[in-house]
Amino acid sequence: MKEFLLLFRRDVTPEETQPSPEQMQAMMKPWQDWMGSIAAQNKLASSGNRLGSEGKVVKPKNIVTNGPYVEMKEAIGGYILVKAETLDEAAELAKNCPILNDGGNVEIRMVVAM
After folding, report:
1. Of 10, 59, 77, 97, which sits 20 to 30 A from 48 (CA to CA)?
2. Under a CB-based contact definition with an 8 Å cutoff, are residues 61 and 73 in contact?
3. Contact between 104 and 77 (Cβ < 8 Å)
4. Cα 40 to chain center, whole Å?
5. Is residue 70 a part of any domain in this protein?
6. Sign of the C-alpha dihedral, residues 102, 106, 23, 68?
């Protein structure tokens, strides 16, 4: 079985419209259910992590900028690794991702060993 990275993308949300702790907890339940269903199929390779909104980008000639991509409207919010035989199978696993209900999308990439 191969591993695939599922990257969760969504529109950047200004800090003032961030959900409350209660809203965040309610939003996490569908994610837990979805990831639990993948784990129940023994296809969850890594539960991944949510990514913070701040970052830096290191460019050639040791240039460091604020980032990751502040000019972009869309940002990567997190990721998981899944096990699947094919890219199409990984896409089937992604079809129930809760981010799709919030206008986001899931990018799927095969992990290639070095």
Report:
1. 59
2. no
3. yes
4. 20
5. yes
6. negative
Q: What is the 3-state secondary structure (H, E, C) of the chain?
A: CEEEEEEEEEECCCHHHCCCHHHHHHHHHHHHHHHHHHHHCCCEEEEEEECCCCEEEEEHHHEEEEECCCCCCEEEEEEEEEEECCHHHHHHHHCCCHHHHHCCEEEEEECCCC
Residue 15 lies in a domain: no
For 63-83, write each residue's pLDDT tens digit.
888 776 555 667 788 899 999
Model confidence pLDDT, tens digit, residues 14-52: 555 677 888 888 888 999 999 999 999 999 998 888 877
CATH number of the domain bearing residue 89 = 3.30.70.1060
Is residue 29, in this structure, part of any structural domain at all? yes
Domain that residue 24 falls in: 2-9+20-110
